Structure formats: C-alpha cells, structure tokens
Amino acid sequence: MDAVTLALELAVQDAAGVRIAREVGAARVELTQGLPLGGLTPSPAALELAREQAGADGPEIHVLVRPRAGGFHYDADELAVIERDVRLAISAGAHGVVVGCLDAAGALDRQAMARLVDAAAGAPVTLHRAIDVTPDPVATLHAARELGVTRILTSGGASAAIDGVDVLRRLVDEADRGIQIMAGSGVDAASVVEIAATGIDAVHFSAKRTVTESGGVRMGSASDGVGGYEVTDRDAAFAVRSALGL
Fold it and tell me: What fold is seen in the domain 3-243?
C-alpha cells in the first residue's frame, strides 16, 4: 500500500497524547488507560478532555472498552459492564469503540460481539487484538465482518506486528476491502515500513516512553516499590510518521 493512503492511529492515555496525535496528523486515537496491562477503559473525564483537545478538525476519538486485564472471555457481569461502557462512550461523544470478546473455546463470541455492535448504535466498532489469540484469525475476521465490525486491530497473531507480517498479508487478502485491517503492537520507526508493505489500511502505535518514580513502598501486588507510568513521546510519534515519508 502507498504510505500516503495509510491511516495513522495513536494509542494514548490522556489529553497530552491527543495533542501529539493531532500534531502528527493521526486520523484516530485509541483512548485508553493502563497501557502496561494491555489497555483498560478510560474514565469519562479522560474522554471529555480528549474530545476538547481533538477539536472539530483533529483525530477521531475511539474508546477502548476493556474492564480488566487478562483474557477476553467475560462472564455475564463483565459483559454487562462492557455493553454499558460502550453506550456511555458513544453518548459522551466518542466516534467509535474498540472491543473484543471470546467464547470459552477461544473463538470470537458472536453473541457478545453482536450485543456490542448494537450498543454502538451505528458508530464504528474495532475488534482489538483478541483476534491474535483465537485459533483461526482468518475465521475470526470473517465472523467480525459478518457482524458489521468496521476494522480489526491485529499483530498477525504475534507478540509484535513485525513478526506477524505473513499473517497480516493473508488477513488483508481475506478482508478484500470488506473490513479494514489495522496493524499494531510494537510498531516503531524501524518496523513500520515493512509492516505497511503488507497492504494494511492503518497502523496503530503508542510511541510511548516510561516515566519512573521511586517511592520505596509497595503500591499493589505487582509493585516492587519502584513506580512508573507511560506517556506519549512526541519524537517517537514523529519518527514513525517520517519513516513512512508523510
């Protein structure tokens, strides 16, 4: 695919990230929190501020709706939370949502996904990287397309998209422009050109850096007393854009 036609989507956690996405010319942001956990549902205030920073001519705001870390097989209570969060995000002005539900066998949960597409009330729905842990990503793609999903975010079944380029090419072929294929996971300036060459419609990246702090006191079961958080790095974001010749 010609890099000029490639849409950029930046995964951000705050208004500062949205400002960088606007500067870099991203078509969309995926608004989330807890990126080290794979991303979790952001707060209503985070969405409100993101919309303010995007403005009328900035990137679209697509909200990741994921109630917890871990896998993507949800019980009835968790699915109810996801469905309500989808409705709340759209009613609060999100342009679309990013979701993914699997059944007990690890395949796409068609019934759950149908509920979420319905909850989005016609707004674009992205199936996130839940596809990458399904036993048959191609079958998952076809199921998502039948359900009316707009796009799929995938690493081609690998931990990093650069290692899944063969599967990405196959997914692009299978999609046949009936559903968008967006590559993400570990995308940076060194890998984005090869990833883009698979023919994907969009590239998703976080361009993040870690800010570390040492408090000396454990704050949670995963803490060792050294805290930290991730922020969007402007230079890293522009490096991806430059690598594509944009």
Answer: TIM Barrel (3.20.20)
Q: What angle do CA 23, 27, 30 make, to 5 degrees?
A: 95
Where in the chain are the domains? 3-243
Query: Is 166 within 8 Å of 200 (Cβ atoms)?
Result: no
**For residue 225, is pLDDT > 70?**
no
pLDDT digits (tens, 9 = 90+) for 149-180: 999 999 999 999 999 999 999 999 999 989 99
Please tell me the chain's helix, strand, coil percentages from 3-state DSSP, rounded to the nearest 5: 40, 20, 40
Residue 50 region, left (φ>0) first, then alpha (ψ -120 to 50), else beta? alpha
Bridge partners of 30, per DSSP, are 11, 62
Query: Residue 130, SS3?
Result: helix
